Amino acid sequence: MVEHPPMRFVLEYPSELPAASDDFLHPHVIRDIVAQAEESRFSGVALSEHPAPSLKWRTNGGHNTLDPIAALSFMAGVTNEIKLVTNLYVLPFHTPYLSAKALGSLDIISGGRLVAGVGAGYLRSEFSAVGVDFELRAALFDEALAALRSIWTDAETPIRGRGFEATGPLWLQRPTQRPHPPIWIGGNSRAAMRRVVEYGDGWMPLIVDKSMASAIRTSAIETPAQFSEELVVLRKRLADAGRDPDSIDIQVVCPPTDLDDSASVRAAREFLDDLGARGATWTVVHVDGSSPQAAVNYIKRFGEMFIG
């Protein structure tokens, strides 16, 4: 029988739930929630990046947003061990040197706790608002991944790309983690897998139906069986590239779970056990966002029931 490592759990900060109130943006609430997550042995806390989302997006299932670097930096200051996860930081929104500085600074001030989950982005209007060509997002993503790793490991050597150019040797503070913070790639497509093989330390797919996959502009992975098929492809590509497939973390999303419903809890356990057996190593958890206290209570109970 193959032994699988225990699943590690990431709290998606509750402000990112569509119905969450502005109370989750208050500093004392943030402090209480992440402190409880750390006490309950969550391995990470995550925030996404949406600097200029449309009102249409917000009113059709979107959520409150904080700048992830600012918010995760605050969280780093009120915790000791929990990982700080960007889920996802949109690299095409920024020039590579700005991304390297922001993400690297978060790694430094947290004592090496950054997990840099990165993606290409999908909201056309948001690209327009920040002044980036939406049609170039894939090319900019590839360019930024290569540049980010280069800047973090060999900062002195200047690099250039679309819209930026370092004209001579630079001096930049390196992140705490060496050779660099883990880079996890979001997306379901074969292009995302290629990026994992070339640049990534983790893969962040989403098991969603075709409608949702289309909305976020990625390929559909609709079932655990299909997830397995895609993971087999990724592992083969890693092995063919001379990389150890077991060295890559795989993050999935825990299904919504009613902790007062034994059937819901059992279904979540079975789902996570199944995906863990198929190769998933981390899972993102959405908690009760009806109020800050409800979120704290949910985190505590979830930790007791699923993490131990």
What characteristics describe this protein?
single chain; 308 residues; alpha/beta; 8-stranded parallel β-barrel; two-stranded antiparallel ribbon; 11 helices; globular
Description:
- This protein has 308 residues and is α/β, with parallel strands linked by helices.
- Helices cover 43% and strands 14% of the residues.
- The strands form two sheets. An eight-stranded parallel beta barrel has the order 1-2-3-4-7-8-9-10, surrounded by five helices. A two-stranded antiparallel sheet has the order 5-6.
- Helix 4 (96-109) crosses helix 6 (137-153).
- It is globular.
Strands side by side in the biggest sheet: 1-2-3-4-7-8-9-10
What is the approximate shape? globular
Mean pLDDT metric: 94
Terminal CA distance: 23 Å
How are the SSEs ordered, and which strands pair?
Layout: E1 8-12, H1 27-39, E2 44-47, H2 55-59, H3 68-77, E3 83-90, H4 96-109, E4 114-119, H5 124-130, H6 137-153, E5 160-161, E6 164-165, E7 183-186, H7 190-199, E8 202-204, H8 210-215, H9 224-240, E9 249-253, H10 262-278, E10 282-285, H11 292-307
Parallel strand pairs: 1-2, 1-10, 2-3, 3-4, 4-7, 7-8, 8-9, 9-10
Antiparallel strand pairs: 5-6
